[in-house]
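Hi C.,

You asked whether I'd gotten around to modeling the 319-residue construct. I have! Everything is below, sequence then structure, no commentary in between.
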Amino acid sequence: MSPKQQHVLAIDLGATNVRAALVSSRGTIVRKIQRGTDRSGKDGAAVTTQIIEMVEGLLRAARAERDDRASIAGIGISSIGPLDYLRGGPTSSPNVPYSFISLVKPLEKRFRLPVTFLNDANAAVIGEQRFGAGKGIKNLVYITISTGIGGGAIVDNKLLFGRSGNAAEVGHLVVDTAYNLPCTCGKGAGHWEGYASGRNIPRFFHAWLAEKKQNAPFQYQEAKDIFLHARKQDPAALVFLDELARVNARAISSVIVAYDPELITLGGSVALGNSRALIGGVEKYADRYLPLPKIKITSLGEDISLLGAAAAVFAGERD
């Protein structure tokens, strides 16, 4: 690759936010734009239009300083799942109000660049290996705990892709049959995402309080409210987070026996904002059928999927 081909346009489509960035081959984010994911459209075209406008904004800013257009090797997309690779977009995602969002074809047509398209957690694990704590590690798993829960796994230095590109959808591991809460995916009950994602922690807290025959000890609407009261040493919040830790540990235990990783990194808004509670709880309750790998919060922060989308382009990964 010539010196003029050392940048990638990276896009990270999440349920809550869309990020777009110009990223160098060294993992430097040269410029970044973030917007709330458009949930007001009639269909997924609203998000497609939003992303195109964000990329155009990046290009305009780059050109205002110098002509970077010729240096762009391609576009990397990290997206919430599940994904339809034939159609080139996420389909029936439980965390956005659209049945399908077309990404690959509209971006190829508009920008005349090759597009690499991956599940967000698959992209993130590639980013972790190239730019983060996974450098030199051949067996690693990345898990995002955010609005939803997802995972990406590299085993023997190969990204696990699966039949339809949705391998390592660990958010839908079954972790509980006692509360038996239906998952927001609409496909089953007892799924990890239905209990421990940012969207569903308040619902799990409500079910836990009902099972304990307790009234809510404080006002809560979001997961952050419960974590905040735990930091204030509220007894109910602390006991509930211990129960949440057991759920997280069950899921991580399943991840360990499935992939036998040397390293598990955690990211996403819930993990990044509550690292001590999550790591400590998992280490306390995880099974020891296999030795625990290193478990840590990613050092790449909220940008890990963006960096992974760029890394996938540089590495020539799935498109």
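If it helps when you're writing up: The domain at 135-299 is CATH 3.30.420.40 (Nucleotidyltransferase; domain 5).

Thanks,
B.
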